[in-house]
Amino acid sequence: MSAAAPPLPTLLVIPTGVGCAVGGFAGDGLPAARLLAAASGCLITHPNVMNAASLYWSDRRLHYVEGWSLDRFAAGELALAPVPSQRLGVLLDAGIEAELLLRHRQAIEACRASLGLTIGPVLSSDVPLEVSLTIGPSGSSWGSLGRPEALLRAGEALRDAGATAIAVVARFPDEPGSDALAAYRHGTGVDALAGAEAVISHLLVRHLGVPCAHAPALAPLPPDPALDPRAAAEELGHTFLPCVLVGLSRAPSLRPEPASGNGLLHGADVGAVVAPAGALGGEAVLACAGRGVPVIAVEGNPCLLQVSGEALGLPVIPAASYAEAAGIVLALREGLDPAALRRPCPDPGEGAGGG
Amino acid sequence: MSALVPLELWLQASPGPLLPQLRQGLAREARRLAGEGAEPLRWAITAVDPRRGLRLEGIVVAPVPAPAPGP
């Protein structure tokens, strides 16, 4: 006789814009997310992991939660309320040129007609959002908006018109000849757009309290025969919007804690968090670690940063790869001490974090 | 209404829970950079140095005062 263990709500964090070898490109964290969703039965992760431009994967066990709300969820300040579907408002930057705008409107129509998503209203900001890109002292990508108030005004208008989740498309600067873009396309660099994208979505979710995610609008690039497979998803179409619309279409709604009701996911329910071994200094990981949630540190996902468990004084369970991390999650779900699977057998005092 | 300001901060953590110390340091730095009511919007520890402590990079969101009424 066998029976599946109850789901073990698990957070998968792959920070944006720090050059992660897995998940630092165009949705190339998706295979890891799918595996961890199967192992845990309930995976909460963020758009950077899931978004692959025209490519996407939808799975009821995968919860698409933007980074600001993911941090608040991990900290126990927001609960997640899974819903059958969201009504998607789309916010288009007034700085998008007519032809590129038409491509985005057609991507929206395609998602309505071919996927059956509930989309509308669609509106443009009253002035261009003026996105700028920067690189921080660590080499990670950051960015800003010249007109954040225009973003928030348009978001309010969409929410007031009935949108329960919001996709944003901002015009990003084209940098076709830049070394950074060439490195990214060849699989060695940082996603220069990612930091600004996160700022946009964080700002909007914080202001509106509804799920939001972002797709950049960019002019098409000339084909590159040396394109890295991890970056290839962004070169398949004219927009990066379909994955955002699909992800948001089933994103859980956000409820301030204390929240009650059937089916809600609470931060206190999280049974494991999985993150790159060198990028453990984000709020979600630290909040979970502070509550004693096992932190599975994936050493096979190097990035620019070297903020490890050892450096921070956090106990972690090391995993060489996401495949091993999935095995550890499954062990935790089944009530096994992951340390019991290692040799030599650890001292009893070492426990799960002693690997 | 809001404005966005980049943040870089080195912080020496004391023994004990780390996150409350980071939040306190970030909130203080956000107010210093952008005034009362400013909050960190997005941040992470991006380096650990034995001498200087923890480096935090982030972006602060600051409320922008409403424009003064015209003459």
Mean pLDDT of chain B: 90
Care to count the β-strands of chain B? 3
Q: Give the strand order, joined by hyphens, for the main sheet of chain B.
A: 1-3-2
Number of helices of chain A: 11
Tell me about the largest β-sheet of chain B. Answer: 3 strands, antiparallel
Query: What's the pLDDT, averaged over the residues of chain A?
Result: 94
Percent strand of chain B equals over 45%
- What percent of residues of chain A are in strands? 15-25%
Explain this structure.
Chain A has 355 residues and is α/β, with parallel strands linked by helices. Chain A has two domains: 10-82 and 255-354, Rossmann fold (3-Layer(aba) Sandwich), CATH 3.40.50; 88-249, Rossmann fold (3-Layer(aba) Sandwich). Chain A has eleven helices and 14 strands. Chain A has helices at 30-40, 47-50, 67-74, 98-115, 148-160, 179-185, 194-208, 241-249, 283-290, 309-312, 322-333, and strands at 10-12, 43-45, 62-64, 78-81, 88-92, 119-124, 131-135, 141-145, 165-171, 212-217, 253-256, 272-276, 295-298, 317-319. In chain A, helix 1 (30-40) runs parallel beside helix 11. The longest helix of chain A has 18 residues, at 98-115. Chain A is globular. Chain B has 71 residues and is of the alpha+beta class. Chain B has one domain. Chain B is 24% helix and 45% strand. A three-stranded antiparallel sheet of chain B has the order 1-3-2. Chain B is elongated and about 35 Å long. Chains A and B meet through strand 8, helix 5, helix 7 and helix 9 of A and strand 1, helix 1, strand 2 and strand 3 of B.
Q: What keywords describe this structure?
A:
heterodimer, A: alpha/beta, Rossmann fold, 11 helices, B: 71 residues, three-stranded antiparallel sheet, 3 strands, 24% helix, elongated
Q: What's the short story on this structure?
A:
The complex is a heterodimer of chains A (355) and B (71). With 355 residues, chain A is an alpha/beta fold. Chain A is built from eleven helices and 14 strands.
